[in-house]
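Example 3.2
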Amino acid sequence: MNNKAPENHGEMNEPTHRWHSLPAQEVFSALESSAGGLSTSEAAHRLAQVGPNELAARKKKPAWMLFLEQFKSFLLIILILAAVVSGVLAVMGEGDIWDPILILVIVLFAAVFGFVQEYRSEQALEALQKMAAPTALVLRDGEPKEISAKEVVPGDVILLQVGDRIPADGRVIEMMNLKMDEAPLTGESVAVEKTLEAIPEEVQVADRTNMVYAGTTVVYGRGRAVITATGMATEFGRIAGMLESVEPPPTPLQVGLNKVGRILGIACLGICAVVAGAGLAVGMFEGILGAFIWGVSLAVAAVPEALPAVVTIALAVGVQRMARRHALVRHLPAVETLGCTTFICSDKTGTLTQNEMTVKKAFTGGRLIEISGVGYKPKGEFYVGGKAFDPRQDPNVERLLTASVLCNDARLQSSVGKWQIQGDPTEGALVVLATKAGFKQEELENRHPRINEVPFSSERKRMTTLHETPEGTIAYSKGAPEEIVGQCTRIFSDDKVQNLSHDEKDRILEEGQTMAAEGLRVLGLAYKALSPGESAETAEQDMAFVGLVGMIDPPRPEVKQAVQVCDRAKINSVMITGDHKLTAMSVAGELGLLDEQALTLTGSELDDIDDATFDRQVEHVRVYSRVSPAHKMRVVEALQKKGHVVAMTGDGVNDAPALKRADIGVAMGITGTDVSKEAGAMVLTDDNFASIVAAVEEGRRIFDNIRKFLMYLLSCNIGEVLLMLIAFIVTTLIGKHAIPLVALQILWVNLVTDGLPALALAVDPPAPDVMQRPPRHAKTGIFSRPVTSFIGGVGLWTALATLAVFLWAVQSGRSMAEAQCLTFVTLVMIELFNCFNCRSERLSLFRIGALGNRWLLAAVASSFLLTLPLLYVPFLQGPFRTFALGPSDWGIVLLGGASVIVAAELGKLVARHRHV
């Protein structure tokens, strides 16, 4: 068997199938690494050689191809061909050469604008992918460091903890009851137990139990592994190389709008064809080509081809705004659902509270001890009855603090004078407590090395570790007081162990309840000296009770205001916690979650009630305490059965089913496991409840803005089509047979009004009442009654007001070119004024203001300024059938344009009156 090691870093990342057959020390030697990991400089050197740890991305379309694809529209192709034919005829002396030139210029501008929109969409989506990049915990320079998963290189030593998603392939070098979920790679449904020993080379991937693989998950225990392959050299990369990448699917909203666009497009094309054909029959156009170009121009203006691009930009820009407010959205459809959220079910610790636990009280040896100090700084005094004492001289406190440190996975670290906890804040508070008393974590761990453990789980509500000591093997356990006391038959007091009576159990639990009523989170601690040969399976039986610790995690100051915002927005806030009921109720009361109708339930109470009873109560429960992840699933399903849209938070492996089942699964970015982050539709980078509320506000804003530019585009486009249809009917009846706009004018209106103003509405600030109205019903689409009424009403008014200007000009003796010019400028002004109407389908413009969106002001100003040269530059006047407007002309045009604001305000007034 050839086990020769690679000789350079480039070869290290070549696909290999023999790492599992090497002893751990030979793996380190081959990778030129060690148990302490790589240095920062060496890791950077290797990253430059082997490249980032990521799968090969699908090939991006070059910019030139993206630009050419803008011309694949059937209507644009026909328009270009018609312009070419028109140009040939003009060269032959049968037409004006400026018409085809300007048509092609306008088409080119439209293509450039479409290219910019699509390019921005791709860039925005790429930015989202980078923001949601996974991380890995590695040893660099001998110290744990969290880095981006794509920076992991061969030779890195990664730390494996429950819930972690493995970033690359690696050889296990240290483990404690390590089990992996390898179903994504092998299809194995049962967790795979890992080993350290070398395995024969010929075994299959599923049987290489000393390896961990990219994409798999730690479900039990802990350990370390040295990375052997990254990126496309991993087993996952090898499989991915056989498959072609697929485009991300469109969101439901995009699918719906594409369908609406097709329906409207077909309808508009039909109307355009009828009007063009009938106009040709009655002599409104100069030949078939003129009628054809006019009809296609109207179709180009009428079909809302910008919808998909603007929707993508609105979603992507909105998601980036959410990221700035600490909420990373992993799936775009979640944005559409956020605005419908009716229940936010949130964990307490770290989400509703600050997640800086501080032990304030302890109960051991029959005495209540108070501890001073705040936060993670290990400075404080110990008091009994108001008098300070030395905790190291008390055997009960010594045993309590020893258990606190050894049954613990957290680390206390000092960086630039600031004390921080690496790991769970609750465990960190216990390390800080022991450090205050002079107990050093490293010294205790060196004297009492951990040899086994039974990890914490939400169902067991406790954790147990086994340690080798001079006195033999000792097990330490910590967890919920009732669980710890339930496992104890003895008690440690005054340096000896004695039987634990029922009265003493009751007193211990009573002390715990007293602490909990004060808002403290309470943990119980116990220990047991194991008999020779006794296993971890029986270590938790017949333990000796050591004491209780009570710690406080104060509510986040901003959460109370966020809860009030939810109340005004008719969103129900619910606390779900594993803490004691009294602790949960104390925090809930301080945050304003409890009112006269609010109910509270514990996990055991939830188990005791049937589904029918719970279905009747679920909408009124505001606090769930002492619950497990399985209870979360039941809460989600009961609320969804009532028709509610539920956002549910979670951070553990067992939270994943509830996160997936919820309408919006919200994973914790700081304390959350990789499994929960994969299951969630959204990740909070600050684990803060207020960020969920901010995300809901952004979700409502995004949906509102999509509705705004949709109202704008459709009301304008429908107005243009109705103008032509009604004008044809009216002018035919009066015997004039005239068209109010020529082809170039139609194309120009489409270019300057359907582009920048629509994009500006996509980034409109939120309406004043965005969080003061009930959630949108999940089945309510964009086209609500107020929206369709607005689109139809404004579209009809646009047609009638513009037609009125045209007929007035014709009847007053103006030339046809002057009448068409006045109609053209009036239509531009109506559509520019209409931008401001579309900032809300219900609220008055005078309430929301016309100046609240600087992008919209800039878009309207630029569209207006771009139109002025068509009126005042002589060589453009001929092709566009325009003339230099005088003051009286401008008065007519501005009056006609502003009339759409009056019409829209009257429509909104009627809509508000009906709503009331």
